[in-house]
Structures are given as structure tokens and as C-alpha cells.
Specification:
By secondary structure, the chain is α+β, with helices and mostly antiparallel strands. About 30% of the residues lie in helices and about 30% in strands. It contains two helices and five strands. It has a five-stranded antiparallel β-sheet. The longest helix is centred in the N-terminal third of the chain and has 34 residues. The N and C termini lie far apart (about 70 Å).
Length: about 140
Amino acid sequence: MNFIKNNFISIFIGTILISIIIYAKNKNSERNLYLNNNILFTVCETIGYDSPGRVTPSIEYIFYFEKSKFESEDFYDLDFSKVKKEDLKSYVGKKYFVKFSVEKPQYSEIYLDKPVPLDFVYKEGQTWKKIPVNYN
């Protein structure tokens, strides 16, 4: 009887884990679909970071589109496991360009390698079809 109970629990937990993985994969596919079609760029401000010490922590940021404020996070490709916590703080409060879906602005992607120049003039919530600064 104990064997059957343990097997049932294992199968139940396995089913839940597989369901979570499938859900996350579908959500990521949906996000990628939206971020490859009908996108715009705007300026965002970083407001925080999460999980220092992990390989890919998230960067938290806000941006405006059509007079609405969006708060988002992105798992950036920098290897933050090698970055000190003090260095991570240097990203907070800075402005960067962000790409987002026009249909679902909650799907967005920050460009930490594309900071907004201090002399760049824009209106909050202004959008562009491509990043308006040349980074060559």
C-alpha cells in the first residue's frame, strides 16, 4: 500500500512539473511571437534587479505607452553571477531603450547595451519604429 501511495505522489508531482514546464515554454513562445511582430521602441527606467548571484537575474524597469505605465522585468543575458551586488546597483535608475509589443505592451525586452545618451531629447512615452540612436 505504501508503494502505491509513493508512486501516486511521484506521478502527481511529475505531472505538475511537466505542466509548469509546458506552460512556461508556451508563454515564452507567445512572448517571442509578440516581440517579433508589430513592435515599437521607447525609453525605460530601471528600478531594480532580482536574485543577485543567479546566472540570469531579472532587471526590473518601467516605461510608458499611450499614457499607461508598464512595469516589467527581463532576464538579461549578462552573466550576473560574476558581477558584484554593488555593480548591479549601477544599473538602477538609468534609462535604456526597450522594445515592446504594441498589442501586448507587457511583453517587452530591455537593451542594457543601449543606454539612453544624457543629451538625447524625448517626451515620456514617445515611441519609435527603431532605436533612434546609432550605437556603431
